[in-house]
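Q: For a teaching handout, I want to show students what a protein-ligand complex looks like in token form. Below are the inputs, and the small molecule is XIL. Please produce the holo structure.
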Amino acid sequence: MSFRQIYSFAWSLTGFLWFLFTITTMPSSTSAQESDNIDVPPLPTGPRLRTIGTNIPRIVSRNGAASLTLAEPLAIGIATHTNFHQEPAYQTVAAREYDVITPENDMKMGPLVPNQRGSYDFTAADEHVRFAEAHGMQVHGHTLVWHQQLPDWLQPSLSPAELRSVLQEHIRTVVSHYGDRVAVWDVVNEAIADSPVLFFGSPMRSTIWSRAIPDYVDLAFFTAREANPSAILLLNDYSVEEVNSKSNRMYNLVAGMVRRGVPIDGVGFQGHLRANGLNYCSMANNMQRFADLGLDIYITELDVRLSLGRNGDISPFQSQRQADIYRNVMRVCLEQPACKSVQTWGMTDLHSWIPSFAPGFGSALPFDENLAAKPAYYAMQSAMLEQRTPDDVCAGQDDSMNFLESLFGGIASFFF
Ligand code: XIL
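A: Here is the structure, written as tokens, with XIL included.
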């Protein structure tokens, strides 16, 4: 090859590289505001949660019998707020990090069928589903039957027969509208009574549904299964994470359902926690008893509320404590092969439900109000990457700790 050929080749190559450099660094046509605040959220460092979760080593045997691990997916998810669709930065982080979304409000009965029986508006709910599909995410539907966020037209004055037909019609309409586009349904939400019901009382919460239709939980699951034979059907509730009187009531209800052949696939532990955390060994034992019934466990609404300072701030100590709670909950789930997902109730503190639900509390989620990842996010990430052995979460725990935690936990949560 002559010097002249080499020279002109070098020039063409330089020209080509320059062309490449110019097109790749050319500013896009988005507005300044978008490129400053929206297009480039402060992305977390390290591997994405959804990437780690696709093939994660899970412990297959507990109680010290073996420490075998099995690569199985663990789904990591968030509840998506209605404002989600106006906020590209929030969407960018969500699509990058998570593989499941739960519409936080838009699939509830009130929002779906607000004005009159039979007149459904799926517009807002459909947007979440389209977003999930566009980003290879799954949808966790929330919720078919609940006693809150009901439409005004649904009055207790309706006869039991009418309420029964409303309940079935609602489940059929919503489940069939989505078909396999919604993989998991919280079929019934918060069905269990909060306080121990003495004497002849029922373990069930008294609601518009339970008062009119004593077997409404079974009915809801049969109807959902008929409408979609392949969806995963869950019973979801709060304060049932540990072995306690409420989770005992849930266990008894669900064990009866399994015995009667009611098509239930799993339970959802909401996981709305405070800074005193949980007894993780008790949580592991609780999960195990549900797993022994052949059911899966989903952590559906995890958040850890913190007591805010006068200026709405939190201390590094609080934020570390919160991170430890997120890490421990992840560990319990990772040690239990029947635990299929960990989903937080929202992604960013900007839209968390906590400040309006529990005034004076907040900062409950893994991303702050500016979408920066908090220690809680990195705790989830590192828990998924670490080496575990069976019974890690029970090591060093005994019942006297349960007692002390339950004694001081409530008081401590006001201060931390
Ligand atoms: C909450 C939403 O986060 C709020 O935006 C709404 O105002 C009320 O409902 N348990 C549940 C969720 O199952 O549906 C609730 O969601 C939070 C508690």
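A: Two things your students might notice: The pocket of XIL is lined by residues 104-105, 189, 270, 301, 353 (CB under 6 Å). The radius of gyration is 24 Å.
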